[in-house]
Amino acid sequence: MPVQEIIKLGDITDEEKRLSLLLAIHCAPVLSGIKAANMVTVTQNEYIGIKYILQGTDISCRFLKTGKDRGILYLYREKELVSYLHLKEIEIFLEEYGYLSNDLDVMLGHLEKRMDSYCKGEILFPHEIGVFLEYPLTDVTGFLENKGKDFIYSGYWKVYHDAPKAVRKFTQYDTVRYRMVRAVASGWNIQEIMEISASWRNL
User: Fold this and answer.
1) How far apart (Å, rounded) are the C-alpha atoms in residues 203 and 197?
2) What are 81-138's pLDDT values in tens digits?
3) Comparing C-alpha atoms, which of 22, 15, 50, 10 is closest to residue 177?
4) Do residues 39 and 130 make contact, with C-beta atoms less than 8 angstroms apart?
5) What span, in angstroms and rounded, lies between the C-alpha atoms of 64 and 171?
6) d(CA 27, CA 34)
7) Residue 37 forms beta bridges with which residues?
8) How far apart are the first and last CA of the chain?
9) Contact 30, 73 (CB under 8 A)
10) 151, 142 in Cβ contact below 8 A?
11) Which of 79, 72, 81 is nearest to 39 (CA)?
12) Which residues partner with 40 through β-bridges?
């Protein structure tokens, strides 16, 4: 969707529709079920509004505070996320950063503490957050090893391995986002869109 069209759709006064549009633009893949997790920067009030919009769905959310009244809203599908994080190579990788439990709530609590330490200037940004967004481990480690440089492709994340596969994923995410934004603009609410979006998973 052209940026101008998204901006036009964002010029709305209805708060629920505005927040629904925010979710559609930034979190369509997780809402439609083709990705385990997404994140978006929001205010605390927006977080409260989005929690209301998502109540009764199978989407969980966590607010990782990064400023006085702002933070990262982390949306995830628990079953899919746990399945990914329990891959042996992911567990070994995360152990290096102090994730010593495989309990999801404990792991997210540790991530939250590391984000807080980063905001206080105590540590560098916790780039392991990439695996919590279901990025390929080879791309997360590639980013860390190359300090974010020398990637072979860039889209929803910086790609260091298997660019064709990543491009297919990015195209799928773009298509789902386009459809979800259009649905919000047409008056559908997020829960209605999530119900129909199951048919989008094989795009």
Assistant:
1) 11
2) 999 999 999 999 999 999 999 999 999 999 999 999 999 999 999 999 999 999 999 9
3) 22
4) no
5) 28
6) 11
7) 76
8) 17
9) no
10) yes
11) 72
12) 73
What's the one-letter identity of residue 121? Answer: G
Strand pairing category for 37-43 and 60-65: unpaired
φ and ψ at 124, to 5 degrees? -75, 165
Q: Which tokens sit at 165?
A: 């596969």
Rounded Cα gap, residues 30 and 82, in angstroms: 14
pLDDT value for 195:
87
How far is it between the farthest Cα atoms of the chain?
Answer: 47
Sign of CA dihedral 7, 12, 18, 21: negative
CA distance 105 to 112: 10
Beta-bridge partners for 76 = 37, 60
Q: Which residues of 6-30 are buried (b: 16+ CB within 10 A; e: fewer)?
A: beebeeeeeeebbbbbbbbbbbbbb
